[in-house]
Write a structure and sequence with these properties.
This protein is of the alpha+beta class and 268 residues long. It is 26% helix and 21% strand. Strand 8 and strand 9 form a beta hairpin. It is globular. Its EC number is 2.7.1.160.
């Protein structure tokens, strides 16, 4: 969320990221399973010119605009069934048949009050040619927006991410699989002082273990990890500790090591 001293652009970008990645449901906005939200709904927080400019100028391409329409039927609102009334109890002197009849009537009333949610199916988003600025587009169309990645809300990855395979195209799109993080996190594995850490991953080993790897619309390479959400060390190619301009290889060939990386190796 924006901070008081953020510039207008930074505040608007943070607001968009919050809505598109985390807060749509909380803000009462409908998000499709592919992460798309009607731009008119988002513009209650950020105006249209600002949205288009921020999307175009964002160096990391965190947001994606699409023109088209959602052919899905309106999603029914959830309703709560009325509280069930307890069945009448028999009292002294009542006939057994009367008691049974009362129970049946009460059960029938409960069944009538039960709300059955109608089935609803989301249909695939239909993309249309985007109209030029100042022109009127297809009457069915509207602008939609989504975050390229980083959602905490549940979205369908297959609709937003393209699987990477261990072939020429996959290796080209993946490039070097490097996760950059803080060196202090290495302490969870092996104690070390604080600094910076780059972890290089092996695409063939990940895919051989059925751990999927994806690329997002903005070129970010992502993986959900194993069943527990982790990428264990057996899938690491190398780990490099960077401190004061010096790169030291601290993990290689499945074991700890400590050697200074030469310049040519660092560029590979």
């Amino acid at each position: 969320m924006p901070r008081p001293n953020d510039s207008p652009d930074v505040a608007a970008s943070k607001t968009m990221a919050y809505i598109l990645r985390h807060g749509a449901e909380k803000e009462g906005l409908h998000m499709r399973s592919d992460g798309l939200i009607l731009l008119d709904d988002v513009m209650k927080a950020v105006d249209r010119p600002t949205v288009f400019r921020l999307v175009n100028e964002n160096a990391k391409k965190r947001f994606e605009l699409l023109y088209g329409y959602d052919p899905s039927p309106p999603k029914p609102k959830k309703t709560k069934a009325p509280k069930k009334k307890p069945a009448p109890k028999a009292t002294d002197g009542e006939a057994t048949g009367a008691t049974a009849a009362g129970s049946v009537d009460a059960l029938a009333a409960q069944l009538d009050a039960t709300t059955v949610e109608p089935t609803w199916k989301e249909l695939e988003f239909v993309a249309l040619p985007a109209p030029a600025e100042g022109e009127q587009g297809d009457q069915r169309g509207a602008w939609y927006i989504r975050a390229s990645q980083g959602h905490t809300l549940k979205v369908e990855d297959a609709a937003m991410l393209e699987p990477i395979l261990d072939n020429e195209d996959g290796r080209r799109r993946a490039g070097l699989l490097v996760h950059g993080t803080q060196w202090k996190l290495w302490d969870t594995l092996i104690p070390r002082p604080n600094s910076t850490l780059h972890i290089f991953l092996s695409l063939p080993l990940l895919l051989a273990a059925s751990i999927p790897v994806y690329s997002s619309a903005n070129g970010v390479v992502l993986t959900p990890g194993d069943a527990n959400g982790f990428v264990p060390k057996e899938f690491w190619r190398m780990a490099v500790h960077i401190s004061e301009g010096k790169r030291t290889v601290v993990w290689e060939d499945g074991k700890e090591t400590e050697r200074v990386e030469d310049e040519n190796e660092a560029e590979q």
